[in-house]
Amino acid sequence: MDLQLIRRSFKAVLMAALMMGTTFGISFGNQAWAWGANGHRIIGAIAEQHLSAEAKAEVMAILEGQSLARASTWADEMRSAPGQFWQRQSSRWHYINIDSQQAFLNTEHQAHSDKADIKDAYSAILTAITALGKADTSAADKQFYLRFLIHLIGDIHQPLHVGRSADRGGNRINVEFFSQVTNLHRLWDTQLIEFQKLSYSEYKDFICCTQTQVVQNQTVDIKAWLLESHQLANTIYAQGDEQLGYEYVYQYQTIVEQQLRRGGLRLAALLNQLY
């Protein structure tokens, strides 16, 4: 068989497997989740650097001394746990589809007392903030909601987690990154970050925050953050089977770094406001 034909056949099989995984909710490792592990840890590490003394003391008490970087990946790690919430409900907490900006603005999002009523990341964040602000919330629930909140603020700063429902936030947009078969969502979750070949702590220092950037990200406005990410998503959508490489990295690496930085600084601002 012709080598080129073999290569095309292999790509077709691999892409079918990837798409089947997306369709049936199968995860292909951490790359299937927002930012991947390193992206979330970068955001957590940046946030921890910018907590007030009061907020840091409260956060560390709730997390029993666990760092924000470590806590940031918990919500993804638990998606393999048994139980209806983790297997059937929790995945909806990680994203919000915005097919119409006006429809989003006209839709009321609110906190819920029942986890099963949460349909998207916005409601999940509002629920977590409300639970953490109540004096009678149990220690176990405070830890649950704080871990989730740390993760979800990271999620919504990955633009394709505020993307379109039709392509599942880029999961159905097939691309090649340096000849590696992937999809647009996975590319933004993990591959653009891993391209730098840095650990999360090195990456955190690599995109260190200026005082101006800190000041610019002090305002807590969840809805504005979501709309901002959605507008970014509209600028990065690719069409199927594109060959992406150095030019794509050059075009979008600064946006990746911007979103990681914003996620960390804004998470710190939110926690400082809560505590």
TrEMBL record:
Keyword Transmembrane: yes
Signal peptide: none
Pfam short name (any one): S1-P1_nuclease
InterPro entries (UniProt xref): PLipase_C/P1_nuclease_dom_sf, S1/P1nuclease
Transmembrane segment boundaries: 12-33
Protein keywords: Disulfide bond, Endonuclease, Glycoprotein, Hydrolase, Membrane, Metal-binding, Nuclease, Transmembrane, Transmembrane helix
Keyword Signal among UniProt keywords: no
The protein's name in its UniProt record: S1/P1 nuclease
